[in-house]
Write a structure and sequence with these properties.
This protein is of the alpha/beta class. It contains ten helices and seven strands.
Length: about 240
């Protein structure tokens, strides 16, 4: 197994710190994932982070940090919104192949990459080519998931409108951020309430030498009104406030 694309021992240690014990099969899969990510990145712009330590810490370990803060039961239904190169969704699936995972992205080329990676890993997940605001209106996806995840740069207020409609009552939306978010969270609280959610916990931590990270946990406490999510242009122009 070619481990030159990521730092195997470092990932094992970092994951253990999050309560995730990676066996050799999982580590082998992360090795394949890293190599595929670098190879595909030469054809499609997936990520600016392609060095072994960067992939290990900023992509893989950062994704696995979810498990430190979320108690995800066996066979949970998870949707990764705007999955991009598969973070955090594919990384979560490597650690927990029991998850019923849907990987959503509006860019078909990225999902083609994801499908190739999943095939190489020998793992099963649904890939969904759609815009989040459109998929969340479809009965087979609306309020059908135990968890939604997003590792996105979008403002939490707008991101919540895209993601909370996928989450069933009693489920959770996990938003992963890379910087201090106090002001952003304060500005999103009213919108989150309108959408049927409530911030349950804000977990800040430092990730090796990669700086501060924040995992925001929202609980879905009531159904989302059918009028949400709105079209993306309206979400951008008239944010909930």
């Amino acid at each position: 197994m070619d481990n030159s694309y990521f730092c195997r021992d470092q990932l094992k240690v970092l994951a253990a710190g999050f309560g995730v014990m990676l066996d050799e099969t999982a580590l082998d899969r992360f090795a394949v994932y890293a190599q595929k990510l670098v190879d595909w990145n030469e054809k499609i712009n997936l990520t600016a982070i392609t060095d072994p330590e960067g992939i290990t810490v900023k992509h893989f370990a950062d994704s696995l940090a979810v498990f430190q803060y979320a108690d995800i039961p066996q066979n949970a239904k998870v949707i990764d919104v705007g999955t991009g190169a598969g973070f955090p969704g594919v990384a979560l699936l490597i650690a927990r192949p029991d998850l019923k995972l849907t990987l959503l992205d509006s860019t078909k080329k990225k999902l083609t990459v994801i499908e190739d990676i999943l095939s190489a890993l020998g793992l099963q997940a649904e890939t969904l080519h759609a815009r989040a605001e459109e998929a969340a209106k479809r009965a087979e996806y609306r309020e059908q998931f135990d968890f939604a995840t997003a590792r996105a740069v979008a403002n939490l207020r707008e991101l919540s409108e895209y993601c909370l409609p996928f989450v069933r009552k009693g489920g959770r939306f996990i938003s992963m951020k890379s910087a201090k978010t106090d002001e952003e969270i304060d500005g999103a609280k009213k919108a989150i309430a309108v959408l049927g959610g409530k911030i349950e916990a804000v977990n800040a931590f430092s990730l090796a030498d990669a700086g501060e990270r924040t995992v925001i946990m929202m609980k879905k406490i009531s159904q989302t009104s059918p009028k949400y999510p709105r079209p993306s242009a309206k979400i951008a122009k008239y944010p909930l406030a």
